[in-house]
């Protein structure tokens, strides 16, 4: 296995800007995830890396429609203690004491110029879903009050104190067999149910409550198209970015893209197909998601060397919709990204 240095990897792969603030129109942005490692360092240590522009904190992995007490639940690995909030006499799964995340978010934003998003979903659960549009809008309201600017709090708990994130990421990977049913016994289209309403509630209504800065919405789909979770939703809901997981799906992976360039196979990376997808946001930016080391993917063959990453980036760097790279860290469990 090759040794790994994120800074060296990124610097070799792209001519990364190290400016103090995230520039969403740049083509050299670097995105990563933090939050579920058993032995991870504090969030601020990730933010000290000048190569990184956006950090997604993962995850809100229990949804209100399934959560005890009707509240969402979280899992931030070793960054939180074991205690949870109580609601209506029920212990929820919303972690209560996360002593350093709030202050680290503030340091990441104010000292290191990072954009911090809270990621919803993840691959660790196959049971989360939103029952309907009303539930989706209520879910957005809860997260906005709990993790957005403290000035908009409507009585929701504040696990990160006064610190507020810069937006929300949707890493939806749930596969539920058999499909869930509603109170009438009708099958719920769980793969897309409620997501457009939730996202548009954020973008069209809630974000405008704090005009002091720009808030963002992102998604982290698999590379196959059509995508059961995102294809129809992104046509009717606002996404600023898509961090596409070009690994673990051989027919559309970044490795297939490199093999295609080298004339070694008929399959190819599906980046161009994603660019051609119908999106409500005509200026959406697409990112190439890669494992940051061999051990960060289910199959080590999906790992690209820095030279191969540079080769792939040069292929798309002139595309208007290309935004940069998303890197899956070794500290996250498989399928979380």
Detailed description of the structure:
The chain has 337 residues and is an alpha/beta fold. The chain has one domain (6-328): Glycosidases (TIM Barrel), CATH 3.20.20. It is built from 9 helices and 11 strands. The strands form 2 sheets. It has an 8-stranded parallel barrel. Strands 4-5 form a two-stranded antiparallel sheet. Helix 1 (6-13) crosses helix 9 (306-316) and helix 4 packs across helix 5. The longest helix has 15 residues, at 133-147. The radius of gyration is 19 Å and the shape is globular. The protein starts with 5 loop residues before the first helix and ends in a 9-residue tail after the last strand.
Question: Can you give keywords for this protein?
Answer:
alpha/beta; disordered N terminus; disordered C terminus; TIM Barrel; 337 residues; globular
Could you give the topology of this structure?
Layout: H1 6-13, E1 29-34, H2 43-47, E2 54-62, E3 73-74, E4 84-87, E5 90-95, H3 101-110, E6 115-122, H4 133-147, E7 167-172, H5 195-206, E8 216-219, H6 233-236, E9 241-245, H7 254-261, H8 271-275, E10 285-291, H9 306-316, E11 322-328
Helix pairs in contact: 1-9, 4-5
CATH superfamily: Glycosidases
In the CATH scheme, what's the topology name? TIM Barrel
Second-tier CATH architecture? Alpha-Beta Barrel
Output the number of helix runs.
Answer: 9
Element order: H for helix, E for strand = HEHEEEEHEHEHEHEHHEHE
Assign the structural class, choosing from mainly alpha, mainly beta, alpha/beta, alpha+beta, or little secondary structure: alpha/beta
Strand content: 15-25%
Strand order of the largest sheet: 1-2-6-7-8-9-10-11
The poorly predicted ranges are 1-9, 11-19, 331-337
Total number of domains? 1
Percent in helix: 10-25%
Largest sheet, in brief, is: 8 strands, parallel, barrel
How far apart are the first and last residues' alpha carbons, in Å? 21 Å
- Give the CATH class: Alpha Beta
Shape: globular
Radius of gyration (CA) equals 19 Å
Q: Write down the overall mean pLDDT.
A: 90
Question: How many DSSP E strands?
Answer: 11
